[in-house]
Amino acid sequence: MTRMVASLSALILSIILLVSGNAFLMTLLGIRLSIESVPADIIGWVLVCYSIGFVLGTLYAQKIIARVGHIRTFAVFAAAAAVASLMYPMAVSMIFWAFLRVLSGFSIAGVLVVIESWFSSRATNDNRGALFAIYQIVFYLSAAGGQLVVNIGDPANFMPFSIAAMLLVLALIPLSLTRMEAPVIEQAERMSIFKLARESFTGVAGALICGVLIGSFYALGPVYATMVGLDVARTSTFMASAIVAAMLLAWPLGLLCDSFDRRRVMFWIAVTAATAAVLVGVLGAERLWLLTILVGLFTGLSATVYPVAVAITNDRMESNRIVAASATLLLSYGVGSVIGPIVMAELVSQLGPRGLFLGNAGFLLVLAVVTSYRISHTDDVAVADQEHFVPAMPESSVVLTELDPRNESFHESPEVVEMKEEELRQAG
Q1: 346, 41 contact by CB (below 8 A)
Q2: Distances in Å between the alpha carbon of 126 and those of 4, 131, 133, 136, 341?
Q3: pTM to 2 decimals?
Q4: Rg of the chain's alpha carbons, rounded to an integer?
Q5: CB-based contacts of 130: which residues, under 8 Å, 6+ apart?
């Protein structure tokens, strides 16, 4: 394990720099727009453009990689994201910023496809579960760490944007110096959302609503914090704690999913998260410690909706269709991440900051009703027949699904495994 991590150190360092820089920038933009007194509904329309760009990037980045190669693609996308970061403070124009958010989303999606394809190419039947876990831990910790960087500099001037650009550019260095050969990316099979919904409506609904919840929180969480009177330092801690909670709750929820019917677990996740969201909306920020706990519970449970949705879907899929189903669930999540910021921003403009959490509570209750209906009208999958739960992460590309240990279509000959191990030794 140590040798494997060491051989992937360049990839891991690039991930840390890229994800922390991108997470830092997302929170910084929300704070800066609030400082500029931009109406909440306009903020939602501007920040949702990132999700639009990201969805487009996951659909088309692989074609760009196939034409110019991994290193060139990574360099172009990372440079484009850095340039966009530098351009924000040049002109505080909502149309201009919306364009930059689309560019940033597309670029980050492309960079993640490159990195995740390298991770997947290093996988064998023996280590892919460990690689899957390492990637997710590094991703979540980097995203949480990026929130804390917001404390550096005044969001009203150019320096924080320059720091974000520096992190994104620095991500180029480790990966550009790697000696690992570029992997081959195969175009993933896809199925339509409607076709998958006929086989696993709960899974598709869960992925879409998770996109609404997480997309709206990442976009408007900093706006909420600013509106309730939190300073920049407390806002960064507020956002970081929410991300850490999402990582910490994944393991205990996984145990429940392996021990009970997963649709019933989904129902209680939705009800509990909705309760936490309502309490945040009612109590506000009168007690910061209580706000942090309740928001952590809400975001932590909301983030688990996606992996539970994936598990529910995979229990009803043949092994050779898991990757195609996962690609469709990612698309469903992406659609939700576009809907969420727009709807919640309108609610915030109408109801004030509590509109963010009351609106999300409404979506969670819809999920609970849908799940309850499906439980009562369709057959359960016996617990003994359920696939092992894996905490899938939606902030990724379809390439990462190849690392999912449940994907039984992943088989390699001993010669290929030996070749990969030799490459790892040479790269290390």
Answers
A1: yes
A2: 12, 10, 13, 18, 40
A3: 0.84
A4: 21
A5: 1, 4
139 CB-side CA count, 13 A: 19
How many CB atoms are located within 10 Å of the residue 384 CB? 5
Task: For 129-155, give one letter per residue: b (16+ CB within 10 A) or e.
Answer: bebbebbbebbbbbbbbbbbbbeebeb
The H-or-E segment that residue 2 falls in is: helix 2-7
Output DSSP code: residue 321. G
User: What are the structural domains, with CATH classification, of the chain?
Assistant: 2-177+186-413 (1.20.1250.20)
Higher pLDDT, 271 or 307: 271
> Can you tell me the distance from the alpha carbon of 15 to that of 395, in angstroms, rounded to the nearest whole number?
13
Element containing residue 417 per DSSP (H, E): helix 414-427
For residues 1 and 22, the model is more confident at: 22
DSSP state letters, 100-112: HHHHHHHHHHHHH
pLDDT for 414 equals 45
Give me the helices (H) in 90-231, please: 94-121, 128-148, 159-170, 172-176, 193-199, 201-227
b (16+ CB within 10 A) / e for 290-308: ebbbbbbbbbbbbbbbbbb
Per residue in 6-33, is it b (16+ CB within 10 Å) or e — as a string?
Answer: ebbebbbbbbbbbbbbbbbbbbbbbbbb
Confidence class of residue 424 from pLDDT cuts 50, 70 and 90?
very low
Report how far residue 392's alpha carbon sits from residue 14's, in angstroms, rounded to the nearest whole number.
21
State how far the Cα of 90 lies from the Cα of 99, in Å rounded to an integer: 14
CB 382 within 8 A of CB 114: no
The kind and range of the H/E element at 64 are helix 40-68
* C-alpha distances in Å from residue 344, one per residue of 201, 262, 361: 24, 28, 11
Q: How many helices (H) and strands (E) does the chain have?
A: 16, 0
| Cα–Cα distance, 298 to 197 (Å, whole number) | 26
Nearest to 25 by CA among 166, 111, 150, 110: 150
Cα angle, residue 284 at apex, residues 282 and 286 outer, rounded to 5° = 125
